[in-house]
UniProtKB/TrEMBL annotation:
UniProt entry keywords in alphabetical sequence: Membrane, Transmembrane, Transmembrane helix
Protein name in the entry: Zinc transporter family protein
Bilayer-crossing regions: 6-28, 35-56, 62-80, 92-114, 149-169, 181-200, 212-229
This protein's record includes keyword Chloroplast: no
Organism: Psychrobacillus lasiicapitis
Source organism phylogeny: Bacteria, Bacillati, Bacillota, Bacilli, Bacillales
Annotated signal peptide: none
Length: 230
């Protein structure tokens, strides 16, 4: 299976996730803050149930920790840049960057296995299921912050292109585990800090404690459902 086909499959899976997010957004369209809190809870759940355990099992902890530190420093620099230019909603861009970085270790690994026909079905399945939650998360962020739908689809297309490109690179160039663990750590750090700081802490103050906790818990429960089903 070619890298281009897998990139197309990734795009389709993210669109499926986007459709689910639009359905949820329609239900909670009266509260953008609530949707942001729900997205924050969802991202925390994805980290706790999927990304962090998978990273610890597959990669070296020092590399992951270094990546998280780099992600934190990068986040501080980006936040300073956005706030100094009077842009107060950098979370869309931060999450998109985090997802871009997150696709790199996965796509490189797939690239290394691309010539092995015995992995074709499992690679296709993992590509579809792994990126439905990411499509859901990214769409939730775009909707909660009133971003244009065309920008969302441009992100999907860019992620698909990035995925295909690094599959091709992984098929020709070997990136050692240390470098991959650092990249994964960066994405974990960006997603973790963005979900807590930009989605939860920035919106929790404008709602009652009970309502905020309900939205966060609902988002986390959605991540549990995604984890079990996908």
């Amino acid at each position: 299976m070619s890298a281009i086909v897998l990139g197309g499959i990734l795009f389709i899976s993210m669109v499926i996730g986007a459709g689910m997010a639009w359905l949820i957004a329609t239900i909670f369209q009266h509260s953008k803050e609530g949707l942001a809190l729900l997205c924050g809870g969802f991202l925390v759940g994805i980290l706790a149930l999927d990304l962090i355990p998978s990273a610890i099992n597959a990669y070296k902890l020092p590399g992951i920790a270094l990546g998280i530190l780099i992600g934190f420093i990068f986040l501080l620099l980006v936040n300073t840049s956005f706030h100094s230019s009077n842009q107060h909603k950098p979370s869309v861009y931060l999450l998109t960057i985090a997802l871009f970085i997150h696709t790199i270790p996965l796509s490189l690994t797939i690239g290394n296995l691309l010539e092995d026909s015995s992995f074709a079905r499992s690679i296709t399945t993992s590509t579809i299921l792994h990126h439905i939650p990411e499509g859901f998360a990214l769409t939730s962020v775009f909707v909660s912050q009133g971003q244009k739908i065309i920008n969302l689809f441009l992100c999907f297309i860019s992620l698909s292109f990035c995925f295909s490109m690094f599959i091709w690179i992984g098929n020709h160039i070997h990136l050692d585990m240390k470098a991959q663990s650092i990249l994964l750590g960066i994405s974990i750090g960006l997603i973790a800090i963005t979900s807590v700081n930009e989605f939860i802490l920035r919106n929790i103050k404008v709602m009652s404690t009970r309502s905020a906790a309900t939205f966060i818990l609902l988002g986390y429960l959605l991540s549990v459902v995604f984890h079990v089903v996908f």
